[in-house]
Target: protein-serine/threonine phosphatase
Amino acid sequence: MGICASSKRVEQERECDENVVYVMDEQCGGGGGAGEGGEDGRGAAPAACRKVASLYSQKGKKGPNQDAVILCQGFGMEDGVFCGVFDGHGRCGQFVSKLVRDYLPFMILSHRNALFLGDDDDGPAFSDASPSSSTDGSGGGSSPAPAQLLEEWREACANAFEAMDKELKLQADLDCSFSGTTAVCAIKQGRDLIVANLGDSRAVLATMSDTGYLRAVQLTTDQKPNLPQEAERIKRCNGRVFALKDEPSVLRVWLPGEDCPGLAMARSLGDFRLKRHGVVSEPQVAHRRVERGDLFIILATDGVWDVLSNEEVVSIVCATPRKQHASKAVAEAAAQRWRTRYPSSRVDDCSAVCLFLRDQDWGSSVAAAKAKAAAAAARAPHGHC
Model:
């Protein structure tokens, strides 16, 4: 499949935990291990992983857990990180999401390596040995401009998603006619952050001002049929977009002459019967330079975002005493909200990855910023405006 990792190694880690996978570069301590959020909760994440991110996947009440999450350390460079959340749907959704989870990260890196080598045949590969592995840009080489970096990663992600879709179609024992998965991924390379999104999972950034004001910044767009540009593309390809009478607020994608499958997203991996009718596998890719106030990124499936706002999720993470429990707190809060808001509905699978962007505890950082702002306000002269 053209990936840059041993499929045997990925399979070994998947056996430890069906829904949560950690992959560590050999130089970062080897081995991986079980995640904190599988259905049976077996094992624990390596200590190095817990410092970088928190992962959790909670099974809902709709059948098998169709969500899958992953963290890869040493991704592309010594301190590089890849994390992703995948929400499967359809009869084979739980198998599609895990297959994509296991292979897509390495396919992205493979395509990025190919582009890097193509730009400079005599230069080093995009790996730990690359000058760009320095987090402060002082590693002996010059970092590409943000526009160039974004374009390179956009092409690598687009190529990898297309290749992944083709691989799904070649799986003889996996029928993806009406099954597929979303994919939202964050790639951290030093201070550069690349986010690729396909479907209706979401990435949200928590950032704090110098005065201690905490903001939730949505980094992705939910690619649903209610977006005019998405619906227009589907209709141009003879797909139909409409909502059912019992859920008038949820637009779905339907085949031209059949009232199926009713897909609630406009882009996905898999869902091959709809690929001829406007559902595409091209991700939207964005770049951000990590700033001093950026605290963490939350990637989560729609089981979380359907019931919790961006601001609520950020607040839940900040209120969690221990960083490694952040994603579990988010998933459990979402499950509880499902039960209280929709008591007659089945709770959806809820999965999240929280990628930490700074080493120190954000709770103390927020408190320090607020104390600084209060002190500044106290020193300010009082008088009439």
Remarks:
- The first strand starts at residue 20 and ends at 24.
